[in-house]
Amino acid sequence: MAVKPTQPALDEGAGNAWQGLACWRMLDTQFGLGERFFKTWQAWRTDPQRSRQLHYVAFTQFTPTGPDVSGGAGTDPALIPLAQALASQWLGLQPGFHRFLLDQGQVVLTLCVGDTLNLLREQQFEADALSWHVHEADADTLWTLKALARRCRRGTRLVVRDATARALQDVERLLPQCGFEIHPPAASVPGAPPATLEASFNPRWTLKNTRQNTIEAALPVGSCAVIGAGLAGASVAAALARRGWQVTVLDQGNTPATGASGLPVGLVVPHVSADDCALSQLSRNGVRLMLQQARNLLVAGLDWAPSGVLERATGDQRSTAQDTWHPGGAWLKPAQLVRSWLSQPGIRFMGNAEVRQLRQRDGAWDLLDAQGRFLGRAERVVLANACGAATLMQRLALDEPQRAQDFARLPAMHGMRGLLSWALHDDTDTPVFPPHPVNGSGSMVPRIPIDGGSAWFMGSSYQPADQPERADQDNHLGNWQHLQQLLPDLADALQPKFASGALNSWKNTRCVATDRLPVVGPLEASDAPSLWICAGLGSRGLSFSVLCAELLAARWGAEPWPVEARLAKALNALRG
Prior knowledge:
Largest sheet: 8 strands, mixed
Low-confidence stretches: 1-11
Mean pLDDT: 91
Distance between the termini: 62 Å
Number of strands: 28
Structural class: alpha/beta
Number of helices: 16
Strand content: 25-35%
Helix content: 25-40%
Radius of gyration: 26 Å
């Protein structure tokens, strides 16, 4: 006999309200040990008519430990595997936003660590349901309720939890002021145990245009084209396909990852700075998401490994900074990840398809090659072809001069050549290599399995693409000089190999923005932009690609953003 799925209570989820929707957005002001999140997740899983995605945004001032989160499921056998899945990713939670992709990316937890009121103001979405933990009312109660109201659409349901009877009286008085209708009225009994109060957002006044303009409307799910099949393009395609889009990925190469994303191996490691700048904060978020994808899609020990990475202070930093061990760092083969992303349902790859011209016609985009031949047509297009995006925009601005003003707000992007030096390990050199990758002035990545054995990689060099290209041997010697700063003893041992000119090399050109941050967002200042970009990842494609894809997809679906609004603003394409 079939078991009827359990419908969640209002404070655990959506009942049948999420059924048939593309996305359900839940906001919970107290994560605790995750109990309510696990119950909501399980209720969603057992509902055959559930929304395509479940977004759960939760807040905590004090981060529980991984073992504590594992215990959040209690003894419920249905919840224990969910808690274990989350706890396995519970690492390095500093103040700010942290995104977890669970259940093949269909359940998305955004955990906000720090002051609840400040982090509420960093949100950019409208919730379908709210769970507000009050306990005792204080001076911030009204401001918190106003911040919650800004996260509501008409009809958003609110449950006030864990409040004393006196706090409920205060909240009951404040709710109508902030646009909430109480239903049913709650009784206030002195000395009563913590109670709940239910309400819905339905203000008697017209919402201001300024408020409405801060939230982007969800785009109708349909078809789109992504130009570029490297880390940027493949991650965008995968993120959109998880949300139901039919995605065509076009690339000038005959196979994916023929550009800079064809790097034999790279490091997944956060940027570190003394002032914890935007680059550092964003890279931490991006590294977490990348490691989640690696665990889910790649073969450990072959395609990637959670090896840890030693960050070595070099040059002038040696006197003021210490080495840093990144326990969550990893090495990863980007091309294999790109192939895994592009093999997901809903994605079609077109090789040998270099898009050289875009032409908007009848509400959609024609994609043409250098001879003007038709390659495809899509309602929406994402430029993810590195520096090739600038060439496409230049041609488009010639055909449609009114776009030049928007394009001028983009940060300048330029090519940066890089050469990676590598060789197979032999029986005599293995003991002198470190047991893990070392990063700093360049990076040394040893013991990487490849066809023919195990190899080490050192690099890579940096040279602006608009300068005459240096000889490969000059770049090898430059990599050796960086190795001297990283690992002097190893550099001495490998000096004959570097000097001989017998090393193997891999080289390509990265795309870098002038401020070293990726470029993500719409290329049109309109209510429903159809031309977008995700480019300029530079040498941090492994740190930024999943984060940028999640941000772009969240903006398309009016979903919670993976990072604070102030950090997302730093990535916005038209930020000039």
